[in-house]
Specification:
By secondary structure, the protein is mainly beta. It contains five helices and 32 strands.
């Protein structure tokens, strides 16, 4: 079967899944309590009991220098107000919204009966330290990747954020600056502004949105813009690449509306406009580099490349959002409650790229995404995929499809087996947007983006042990044994063979701070190659934040 047919079949299957008609069952309201008053129980980072129990630590200073979240910020995250009639779903959704802010170590709501069907609601929150310094470090021989970020999620307790970061990898050095506000214009709007300056270009981006305030809200609106330039890796032959100067512009406006509420989900429909421009200056004398970054020769590709294009796409949208959630711990964090939607969530966007509005291509544009989560006692299964591309009147452009599955199996209160698999295929893909596998992308004993192509297979397995009691209720340590396997290749130049699969095995340490804003653990991994020789005697060290998969 040819690559184009395979990608098209995968894309069609995902399109049919996304376009499936909604079920017919209707929602039954459980709102049966009238809220008289809302009380706020805002706990400090370290309680009086914490300070007395650990009197040898200066915990009181942490509370002194921390500015607690303002009461109006907490109130704006609730999906109800005094005088409203509420049910269990309103309480659960309000708790999820509070936890999703990243401002609190824990958040819950308590109902206190008053008279008849009238209740008071107590909102319990515990503050956490919201200023964080994130550092990543990965090294393969002389190839060094590192980044450092200073981020504040809740500046002076106002739900505003800022970040400053520096990243250095094999391609560029980048400084980034960001500002954000989760509760603009009285609470329902969000805004973000970002700037980045690299040694091969700069970029700016902004977005403003009124997202669905709750799962069953009536409408949402978003607008976003990006402008940037850089010299990305542009693959021309196997692992050989050049770095031409590229410029990228995109803008998007999108309005989404609730169409139907069912017993377990909400169906939404909407529409918008997406505009993008992309240019590569493939000037003469570009150096051809190999996987190690060494210069092999020079090349002149000429002025015309397929990636130079303008797209003007009005589109329609349909999606399904789940109303059911499961509360998990120790999946991606080190003890916080993780709220995951259970069941099928899917979205489909269909548009028409048109030359009439100044575009360089015409045809059907689509973007389909699905994720299904099943929670069965000690087992959590996540399956999903996506496909997108442009089916032009004269040719296919950037057609790609991918699928993944992750299994989280609890073996013991402190031990979990995690397995993940990923496959992806593409046709007429942009040569700066190929799939990669390497140090930062799932193969922990390889160099930076060592393998690249329009095909990708990857499998990862980890046995994770976490000391759930924690240390003094301040930190939670963990340990992991892992194996990574996979390959990325160009279908026109190679075939997938068992002998071409690369692997890595190793062990690592995990560490989470219970009173800090970073839910993801600090990760330290040591990896050795298997199934191939990476030309290195020692282990490859990587330090970062968050699980690899």
């Amino acid at each position: 079967m040819t690559s184009g047919r395979l990608a098209a079949i995968m894309a069609l299957a995902l399109l049919l899944t996304a376009a499936a008609p909604p079920p017919s069952d209707e929602v039954s309201a459980d709102a049966n309590m009238v809220v008289r008053r809302i009380h706020f129980d805002r706990g400090p980072i370290f309680s009086k009991e914490d300070r007395e129990r650990l009197s040898w630590l200066p915990l009181g200073l942490v509370d002194v220098f921390h500015v607690d979240t303002r009461y109006y910020v907490i109130r704006r995250e609730l999906v109800f107000a005094a005088g409203d009639r509420i049910g269990d779903e309103d309480l659960s959704e309000s708790a999820r919204r509070l936890r999703s802010t990243g401002f609190f170590g824990d958040a819950s709501l308590e109902v206190v009966p008053v008279v008849a069907d009238t209740v008071d609601v107590i909102v319990h929150t515990r503050e956490i330290w919201t200023t964080a310094v994130n550092v990543t470090y990965e090294k393969f021989e002389s190839e060094l990747l590192w980044s450092a970020q200073l981020r504040e999620r809740n500046f002076l307790g106002t739900a505003r954020s800022f970040s400053v970061s520096r990243r250095e990898d094999a391609d560029r050095i980048t400084w980034s600056f960001g500002l954000g506000d989760r509760q603009m214009f009285g609470g329902r709007w969000r805004g973000n502004l970002n700037f980045a300056d690299s040694d091969d270009g700069s970029s700016s981006a902004w977005s403003i949105a009124r997202p669905f305030f709750r799962v069953t809200s009536e409408w949402s609106l978003e607008a976003a813009y990006f402008n940037g330039g850089s010299r990305p890796r542009y693959y021309i032959n196997g692992d050989q690449y050049i770095r031409p100067q590229g410029s990228f512009n995109s803008a998007r406006v999108f309005l989404n509306h609730r169409a139907r509420i069912t017993g377990g989900a909400v169906w939404r429909v909407g529409g918008g406009v997406q505009i993008s421009d992309q240019r590569f200056n493939t000037e003469a004398g570009l150096s051809v580099l190999d996987a190690e970054g060494d210069t092999e020769t020079e090349v002149d590709l000429g002025a015309g490349v397929d990636e130079n294009r303008d797209l003007r796409i009005p589109f329609v949208h349909v999606s399904r959002a789940s109303r059911r959630f499961t509360e998990q711990r120790y999946l991606f964090s080190m003890g916080r409650i993780e709220d995951l939607p259970v069941g099928l969530e899917t979205s489909l966007e269909l548009g028409w790229a048109t030359r009439a509005a100044g575009g360089s291509q015409s045809g059907l544009w689509f973007d389909a995404r699905q994720r299904w989560i099943a929670d069965r006692n000690t087992t959590l299964l996540v399956v999903g995929g996506g496909s997108r591309g442009l089916l032009g009147s004269d040719k296919v452009t950037d057609l790609r499809a991918s699928g993944f599955a992750s299994l989280y199996q609890s073996l013991h209160e402190r031990m979990r087996l995690v397995v993940g698999v990923l496959g992806a295929t593409a046709d007429a893909i942009d040569r700066d947007q190929v799939f990669t596998l390497g140090l930062e992308s799932g193969l922990r004993a390889a160099r930076f983006r060592e393998f690249a192509g329009d095909r990708l297979v990857r499998a990862n397995v980890e046995l994770r042990w976490i000391y759930t009691p924690g240390i003094l209720d301040l930190a939670t340590p963990g340990f992991a044994l892992f194996g990574d396997f996979g390959h990325a290749w160009f279908e026109a130049e190679d075939d997938l063979r068992i002998s071409s699969v690369r692997g890595a095995v190793g062990f690592g340490f995990r560490f989470g701070f219970n009173r800090g804003s970073e839910e993801a653990p600090i990760r330290i991994d040591l990896a050795w190659p298997v199934l191939y020789d990476n030309g290195r005697d020692g282990a490859v060290l990587s330090i970062g934040t968050g699980q690899v998969f």
